[in-house]
Amino acid sequence: MKIWTLKNCDTCRKAVKELEAEFGALERVDVRDDGVAPVDLARFYAAFGEDILNRRSTTWRALSPEAREGNPLTLLAAHPTLMKRPVIQLDERLFLGWGKDVQAELMQSK
Question: Which of 8, 18, 26, 88 is the most exposed place for a label (fewest CB within 10 A)?
Fold first, then answer.
């Protein structure tokens, strides 16, 4: 299992803690420190569309209206913290966020 997180994100820390308890060690990618590979950004965008953009983030609010209209993949490459988190990969399946629906689906996959 691989997870893309932000180390200072409470939701991400909670997801990591619960997933490690259920699945063992995770391969972690910190979107700020490690960045996100362009191929991964493209996969995430293909899977989640515009939902991958965290429009409630401080980073989003700091962007100019013109920048917000830019290509989402370009925005995510320039500002990886705009990515909604966590993104979880289990085998070839991708999950976005740590809502009850994601939690339930992952636990059923175990």
Answer: 8
